[in-house]
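Changelog entry

Holo records now carry the ligand SMILES as an explicit input line rather than a separate metadata file. Below, a converted record for alpha-ribazole-5'-phosphate, shown in the new format.
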Amino acid sequence: MTVKPPSAAAQEEAADRLAGLATPAGALGRLGELGVWLAGVQGQCPPAVPERVRAVIFAGDHGVTSYGVSAYPAAVTPAMVRTFAAGRAGVSALAAAHGVTVRVLDIAVDDDLEGIDPDVQRFKVRRSSEPLHLRDALTVEETHRALDAGTSVAAEEIAAGAQLLISGDMGIGNTTPATALIAESLGLPAAELTGRGTGIDDEALAAKTALIQQALDRVKDRGLSPVETLAALGGADLAASTGYLVAAARAGVPVLLDGVIAVACAVMADRIEPGAADWFAAGHRSTEPAQSLALDKLGLVPLLDLGMRLGEGSGAVAAVPVVRSAAAVLRDVALLSELAI
Ligand SMILES: Cc1cc2ncn([C@H]3O[C@H](COP(=O)(O)O)[C@@H](O)[C@H]3O)c2cc1C
Ligand SMILES: O=C(O)c1cccnc1
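Structure line, unchanged by the conversion:
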C-alpha cells in the first residue's frame, strides 16, 4: 500500500476561501495555512474541527542508558508508564484540558510492569534494546514486529474515530536513538545535532555526542535500507511509533508531531513511505537541535515554540487548540463578499 497525496482540490478551495475571508489578506498568518492543510488532509472545505484527537505513547528502554547519555536512570521508564496509566503525567494534564485521549503501550520497557492493565503490554516486542553504538539495537525481525504493532494500533485508533492522531514517547535514553536516526537520515555528524535531552551537563553531552558518532560510524558502510536503519540505530518503541505514522498516512488520517522522538519517527516513516510527511503537521519546536533540523528537512514549520523538551506527545497536545482554531476560522468567518461595503 502506498500513500496518496492530500486532496489538492480541497486545498485549492480552502486557499480561495481563506483569501476571501472578511479579514485583511494574510492576516490569519500560519493559522490560515494550517486551515488549508487541514482541508487537504480531510478532503473537504471548510475542514471539520477535529474533536476526536487520540494520542498513543510508545514506551521502551534503551541499552545506551547504561553509558551515561541521560540525566535520569532507566527505572523512571516503568514508573512513568504507571503514571500515564493513572492519568497523572504532563501529557495527561494537557490531554484532559483539551479532550484528547491518551493510551500508553509498553513496547520495550525493561520491566515486567506486574499488575498493569494487560492492554498496555499487548504489543510488547522485547525488554529494552541493545546499545546501538556497539551493536544493532534490534534484529530486523523484531523491527518488523514493532512496525506491525504500530500499524495495528493506528488501525484501532482510527476505528475508534480518530480525526487527528498524535504519537508520544516514554523511555529514558530515547533522545539518543532519535538523534542517531535523524543524523543518519540527514547525513550530518552527531556534533551538529546532539542535544541535552533531560538536561545533561557538558561532560555527558560530549560523551553522548561521541556515542552517537560511534553508532553512525559503525553502520555507515552497510548500505542500510530504512527498516534496517531502524533496527541498527532505533529501538522497538521507535519502530512501533514509525509503523503507527506510516499507517496513519496510508489511511489518510492526519498526525500532529511532537518533539525529537516523534519527528525522528516521522523522518523514518517518510523514508519508508515517501509522501507520508504530507499528512503530518509539526505541533511544536523542541529544544533538541535534531528536531529542528529534521523538521526543516520534512518542510514542516512548528506551530508552537515554548521551549518545551518533555516528549510524551505533550508539545503536540498543547498545539491541539491551535489546530481546532484553524478549522474554526476557515469554517465560521464571513466572506468579504458578504459584507455591505
Ligand atoms: C520524569 C520524566 C518524565 C518524562 N517524560 C518524558 N520524558 C522524556 O525524557 C526522556 C528522554 O530524554 P533522555 O534521552 O535525556 O533520557 C524520555 O523518557 C522522554 O520520554 C521524561 C523524562 C523524565 C525523567
Ligand atoms: O524533544 C523532545 O520531545 C524531548 C526532549 C528531551 C527529552 N525528551 C523529549
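Spot-checked after migration. The first strand starts at residue 53 and ends at 60. The pocket of alpha-ribazole-5'-phosphate (ligand 1) is lined by residues 70-72, 76, 80, 169-176, 197-198, 310-312 (CB under 6 Å).
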